[in-house]
Write a structure and sequence with these properties.
Layout: E1 2-6, E2 12-16, E3 21-23, E4 26-28, H1 30-39, H2 42-65, E5 71-74, H3 86-95, E6 103-108, H4 119-128, E7 132-138, H5 145-150, E8 155-158, H6 160-165, H7 174-185, E9 188-191, H8 197-206, E10 210-211
Parallel strand pairs: 2-5, 5-6, 6-7, 7-8, 8-9, 9-10
Antiparallel strand pairs: 1-2, 1-10, 3-4
Helix pairs in contact: 1-2, 2-3
Length: 219
Amino acid sequence: YQPKIYTQTEKLAGAEALVRWIRDGKVISPNKFIPLFEKNKFIIKLDLYIFEQVCKDIASWKQKYNFTPTISINVSKEHFANENFIEEYVKIVDRYDVDREKIDLEITESATIEEKIDILKIMNKIKEKGFILSIDDFGTGYSSLSMLQSMPIDIIKIDKIFVDKADLKSDKNIINYIMLIAKHLEVKTIIEGVETKEQVDFVKRLEGDIIQGYYYFKR
């Protein structure tokens, strides 16, 4: 779990569940095995396994500490071939008596422009079931602004690439304009890949809602 931190207070906002494959004592990067799992459809089983593990952990934390943080979980586009996939998620979350508003389902922006997928219908189903909905890696998938305006999302996660390329002393960065769009749409922002104090200060100046990255926790 990688923590998410409120920008202004630096208190815990929640966390993201990340998957790592440890083989022969070595950590294999998700960049290497996730594409393979997507190709052979094993990613669907992996997603459900991670989702159930998160629900188990949230239920355990609630029982032991009376504490239920919001946890975000990635949902692969491979699920979307079946528009009713969310029903399986509902069964799992209800089995562990977890508040659905504590589960943030992340969909990558690139998945929103896949042909033959009615992404708005899928997103609306997710929201109808009571889950939080985020767009991950925003700015890298080339979705249209008109489509973004139609999406029933709660959070935009701004991709690390925009933080890395930003002139931290200037207000003329793409990330500034993404922030303006988010505020206009009345959705929260999470800025990913924040690794230095200078980047933290930059995000604070922009009044981004939440920070996620190695600066607070390397994972």
